[in-house]
Design brief:
Elements: E1 9-15, E2 18-22, H1 29-33, E3 38-45, H2 49-59, H3 63-70, E4 77-80, E5 85-94, E6 107-117, E7 120-127, H4 137-145, H5 154-187, H6 194-215, H7 218-231, H8 239-302, H9 314-337
Parallel strand pairs: 3-7
Antiparallel strand pairs: 1-2, 1-3, 4-5, 5-6, 6-7
């Protein structure tokens, strides 16, 4: 998912797979959708309720689908209505320049709602808080690079859009995989701070939960689109493209499942290593306590005492107090550096 300047309304028209017009008025969309051999794309970025209702009335869009576009936190899905198919998908992006001590999620999602019509598609893009939204430039580039496929209608447009979104999800999964691998390496680094590893592990688990919520349902979405194509006898020229897209979705699903196992293993291993380190510290402290206890017990039993430097003078009390405080401070620093305190 990339970010950039978002235009509120964009339109394109193809005839027989060739680009015929761009950025034509919104009022002409319905006319082109009635034209044989025409293929139309209409894109709306953060439209208001009135604009969507007006468009729904003009293009005969189902009101339930319009409500889903306006609803918050709508799940990934594909729904078939009488005159069109409605999709809700999410583009993802994982930032790697977040503050290291931040517990906030680095995953940014942007919702893309798609109305699939017989001779075109309508995309409605909305961004979550803190995200600039999904940029359609990469989708347009793929449509231009594979312009020969556009003669096969809306299925070609829909494939290009879904392919870009799935690739963006792959990038997010890869970044999260790298993050978890770094956590695994830090587990056995004696110089690593346990608190930092805990914070990063918690953040990775949080991001993975959010990512799985939008990635796993993509399998159902692509399956529904492929089933719709089969029922309407679409050209077999796109079968290979959709098979490849479905394979990518399956791989993304399996990858997220393996990451869940990995981050769980990191979390449990970190707890086990903390217990092991604590046992080691307790053994060392117990050993030194036993060593020191022997002379302390002997001298205490026999009541042995000898005059120390400054014995019987005020300076002796001060010097002994300095030795006690200095020794305690030295032990505190040593224990703190080793992570015992």
């Amino acid at each position: 998912m990339t970010t950039g300047t978002q235009e509120p309304v964009r339109t394109r028209l193809w005839r027989q797979g060739r680009l015929a017009a761009t950025d034509f008025p919104l009022a002409e969309v319905s006319d082109y959708l009635e034209e044989d051999g025409a293929l139309v794309w209409l894109d709306l970025c953060d439209p208001d309720h009135a604009q969507l209702c007006e468009l729904a009335e003009e293009l005969t869009l189902d009101q339930h689908a319009v409500e889903d576009v306006l609803a918050h936190a709508e799940r990934t899905k594909a729904t078939r209505y009488a005159h069109h198919t409605f999709l809700t998908v999410y583009a993802t992006r994982l930032t790697v320049d977040a503050p290291p001590d931040s517990l906030g999620s680095r995953l940014h999602t942007s919702r893309v709602s798609v109305f699939v019509l017989p001779r075109g598609i309508v995309t409605v893009r909305r961004a979550d808080a803190g995200s600039a939204g999904f940029d359609m430039e990469e989708v347009l580039r793929r449509w231009d690079d594979n312009s020969d496929l556009l003669q096969h209608g809306t299925a070609a447009l829909l494939h290009g859009l879904l392919d870009v979104i799935v690739d963006g999800q792959f990038d997010a999964i890869q970044s999260l995989d790298d993050t978890i691998e770094d956590l695994e390496e830090g587990l056995f680094d004696d110089r690593a701070q346990t608190r930092v590893i805990q914070r990063h592990t918690y953040r990775a688990r949080k991001e993975l939960v959010e990512l799985r919520r939008v990635v796993l349902p993509m399998r159902e979405v692509v399956t529904a689109v492929m089933r719709h194509r089969e029922e309407h006898g679409n050209s077999v020229a796109l079968d290979g493209w959709y098979a490849d897209l479905y394979d990518h979705v399956i791989r993304a699903t399996e990858w997220t499942e393996s990451l869940r196992d990995m981050v769980t293993t990191v979390f449990e291993t970190n707890l086990s290593l903390q217990d092991a380190r604590l046992n080691t510290v307790m053994k060392k402290l117990t050993g030194w306590a036993a060593i020191i206890a022997v002379p302390t017990a002997v001298t205490g039993w026999y009541g042995q005492n000898v005059p120390y430097p400054g014995f019987g003078h005020n300076g002796g009390v001060v010097s002994s107090a300095v030795v006690i405080v200095g020794a305690a401070a030295l032990l505190y620093v040593v224990f703190k550096r080793r992570g015992w305190l």
